[in-house]
Amino acid sequence: MLEITLTLEHKGYKPIYIQVYEYFKNEIETGRIPPKSKLPSIRGLAEHLCISRNTIENAYQQLITEGYVHSEPRKRLIVNDIDNALLSQLHSSQLQTNDVKEHRVERFLYDFRYGNVDLDNIPHTLWKRQMNEVLAMDDEHLIFYGNKKGDLQLRQQLAHYLFQSRGISCTADEVIIGAGMYQLLSIISQMFLRMLDTVAVENPCYDGARRVFINHGFTIQSVPLESDGLSIAQLEKGSAKAVYVTPSHQFPMGMILPIQKRLSLLKWASENDSFIIEDDYDSEFRYQGKPIPALKALDRNERVIYIGTFSKSFMPSIRVNYMVLPKRLLNIYDTHFATYNQPVATIIQRTLAQLLEKGIFERHIRKMRKIYSQKHTVLIEAIKQYMGEYVHIQGTQAGLHVIIRIENQDEEKLLDRALASGINIYSADKYWMERPKDNAAYFLLGFGELSHHDIVEGIKKLSYVWFDGE
Asked: What is the C-alpha to C-alpha distance for residues 327 and 163, in angstroms, rounded to an integer?
């Protein structure tokens, strides 16, 4: 019998037959059991390892199925002749894979990450209760992929919600459900490929959106911002036939596009047979004055593609976004995406529909608007108290982040000091295509996940390492 040096873990999570199979597989691949060798008999090996014959038989059957051994009449299993060079490459690849270190998630004392939400107020109980009610429904549609545009009930509820909250008049047929921003932008890009070759973006803008357009082969026209948002004059000078904008809370700089510029942007789109992609990513959270109607609400010529999300307002993990297509694009969508199955689970969509229909979602928004407004105020006051004239704050009317600008400072050095002190902050550098020549450092400070105490202490410590501890 071959020398078998196999130690079995009887209380481990891995079945015994898998352990036996993997042992012989590894011995054959490494050459320690050479080709034409005979494996021990089922009975002999079972007695040697003190396990059942069925266990050995299952392990051997797996080896036969994968081609490591073969059986011959009245003989034990024989090891097949396998290309040593290929096995060597296989093992080299496996060793490299095993050598990859697990990604270490750094822990910071204070993390001003944009996009994080208040973990203490995520409505786990509400979500679980409503999903259980949906699962209890006698509705066979919940089992299948569902309507390709998305669950009809959710689209109907969204059409109603958008009219009430954003002033958008649309039908359920114009609403498309998607699995995140990137998926919806990818669909839009594929529709545009047949119509245009250049997409304009704000400078700076959300880098993820810009990357989607680049990945689809579009030429990017960078349009600078003015103090009140996108420069319409600069947009008009370019050749773009579509523009991606964040008018209700410019990302990342935070300004709100005024009504005159909104009307001018719509006029540009109409006169140039162009389209506007409106990313309304956190419009629910406005802290000064009444909510501003969406750009889509002013669109009378069907030129605006509106995109909304549940990520900031509810739970990022459900990965549900939605868009409202202009009627003029519906035929293109129906023609080219008719075979695409809906990527969002029907159960999740129906649960969201129920939350909207029962008013639970709107009550949650009101609650979170109050919570985030208080955190926003704490952040602004802390910056003013501890940083004072050292920084200029931008984007203070809405959203889950602010921008701070620090004149005549090296951005990398400030970032290094913050990180070394256990404070995670985020440079705005990656959002620009052409960085302004103002010799200033720009940082995003998100506050959604932080407590009032951590906001104050984080800003206090950040001020010390930047301005007092030099």
From this structure: 17
